[in-house]
Amino acid sequence: MKQKLRVALAQINCTVGDIEGNASKISEYIRRAQSICADIVSFPELALTGYPPEDMLLKANFIDDNLKKIKEVAKVVGEIVAVVGFVARKGREIYNAAAVIYKGKIFAVYHKMCLPNYGVFDEKRYFAPGEKSVVLKFGNVLFGVNICEDVWYKNGPTSQEAFCGAKLILNINASPYHMGKIKLREHVIADQAKANKLFMVYTNLVGGQDELVFDGQSMVLDDKGRVIQRLEAFKEDLLAVDLEIPQLKGRCGKTIIKITDKLPVKEKPPLPVQKRGILEPVKEVYEALLLGLNDYVKKNGFQKVVLGLSGGIDSSLVASLAVDALGKDNVAGIFMPSRYSSAESAEDARQTAQNLGIKFITISIEQIYKMYLAVLEQHFFGMERNITEENLQARIRGNMLMAFSNKFGWIVLATGNKSEMSIGYATLYGDMAGGFAVIKDVPKELVYKLSRYRNSLSQVIPERVFTKEPTAELRPNQKDSDTLPAYDILDPILKAYIEEDKELEKIVSLGFDKGTVSKALKMVDASEYKRRQSPPGIKITPKAFGRDRRMPITNKYRG
């Protein structure tokens, strides 16, 4: 015998700390799920507080407000089971929890058992681990509830709940994005479904939160591990699926929580056919950057952004992302030439701005630069010009951008990429100045691919920007290649060292020149102090600087 259930997944965009706003959105989606006659609706992990709340969890009032609000949310729940992520408290301990609500009553609270404490996760700092699984009886169906990391362990909570007779698992998540992660998630969930012979409903958070982007891409898998439904990537979504769940008696007796023996009779309209696939890899990254940028700007109370538009590939990509995320009326580009800026750069910057339809301002920094040189001349007398004079130009530009930010309330977008941030090829208080570094975790080679992808939608970046040699234009005839290996060599070296933690000899064994590798690694190690002072940026690789990779600034170890 099988029981038919209509299960809805509410993939919502929550804001950390906005308990009132998050509760309102949860209530709205519960009503929407009820309107399509869903029997169950599940929400993301910590949907009520937003994820990750970090040290907000150390504030007693924050926990109190969340506990008060989950009771208010429960009041809007009618003849539907709602699984909502919130923070539970028991004595002095707090828990990453899921409330199971039906007809205004909280029937069960599940405490997350497997707390991640690696990469961007720091849950053991705040939460106590749960100690028991939760299985509930709804009509003739037994279902289990668990949270994110719980499903990644082969003999963890999912297996325990399956042993007690659950044939459906509702797993709620706040799983951050990085390139290719959807395939890894799908593999893990499919293995659990097949191994335990049950249906998996995987509901993930969507939205940007500081450096993190949550991609959604929630999914439903059958008991053979096949994806039978998938939600939108990088967008809020509500989707229902009709499942036929096998009816079995529970094997854990009194530990099974009864919600109701008889499901309410509902006239269920047919569901629309909706098929959503996985995005192509470069498009996936582009969409992640759009969402991260949009949410960072808007959730922090800004409307407009400004950036230095140099005529190079990095600033052209950032300008394109800003327009696509925020609209052309909310973006300004400033071209700030010095004596070393080429006519081609001026033309390319102007053309990019024109193609995008954004406000374009040209401010020569030559007079300011001359003044700096004159003031410093007596102090630098007899010394050759070097990187000092080069960096003065970058710092003047940083000051100009910050002046526009202060005067008009625009947030400055830094335009440095991961390759530059890795080796310190960026100027503190110059091109590193800004409120948000959109492509901070995007290697240079990927910058070109993303820019090509954007041009495939509409031609906004001039072709010459792709073909000319990268240059900072801070001295005569300067090229990045004067100082750095070619990016198609540098980027794989940096990936091996930063994302894969490979040491020098191992990287050399991959086919790279030892001198080139040694130089690159020394530059990475010497630049930690710079990166620590850079603005936050969107994580799109498996290991980004900051939350993922936490290296000491003062460090003599060189392997």
What's the CATH architecture of the largest domain? Answer: 4-Layer Sandwich
**Rg result:** 26 Å
Q: How many domain units? A: 2
Q: Can you say what the CATH homologous superfamily of the largest domain is?
A: Carbon-nitrogen hydrolase
SS class: alpha/beta
Structure description:
This protein is an alpha/beta fold and 559 residues long. It has two domains: 2-264, Nitrilase/N-carbamoyl-D-aminoacid amidohydrolase (4-Layer Sandwich); 282-476, HUPs (Rossmann fold), CATH 3.40.50.620. It is 35% helix and 20% strand. It contains 16 helices and 20 strands. The strands form four sheets. Strands 13-12-9-8-7-6-15 form a seven-stranded mixed β-sheet, covered by helices on one side. It has a six-stranded mixed β-sheet with strand order 5-4-3-2-1-14. A five-stranded parallel β-sheet has the order 18-17-16-19-20, with helices on both faces. The protein is elongated, with a radius of gyration of 26 Å.
Can you give keywords for this protein?
elongated; alpha/beta; 20 strands; seven-stranded mixed sheet; six-stranded mixed sheet; 16 helices; single chain; Rossmann fold
In short:
The protein has 559 residues and is of the alpha/beta class.
Helix and strand arrangement:
Layout: E1 2-11, H1 19-35, E2 40-42, H2 60-74, E3 81-90, E4 93-102, E5 105-111, E6 134-138, E7 141-147, H3 157-163, E8 168-173, H4 181-196, E9 199-204, E10 206-209, E11 212-215, E12 219-221, E13 227-230, E14 237-246, E15 256-260, H5 281-299, E16 305-308, H6 313-326, E17 331-335, H7 343-356, E18 359-362, H8 366-377, H9 387-408, E19 411-414, H10 418-423, E20 436-437, H11 444-457, H12 463-467, H13 487-499, H14 504-508, H15 514-526, H16 528-531
Parallel strand pairs: 1-2, 2-3, 6-15, 7-8, 8-9, 16-17, 16-19, 17-18, 19-20
Antiparallel strand pairs: 1-14, 3-4, 4-5, 6-7, 9-12, 10-11, 12-13
Helix pairs in contact: 1-2, 5-6, 5-11, 6-7, 6-11, 8-9, 13-15
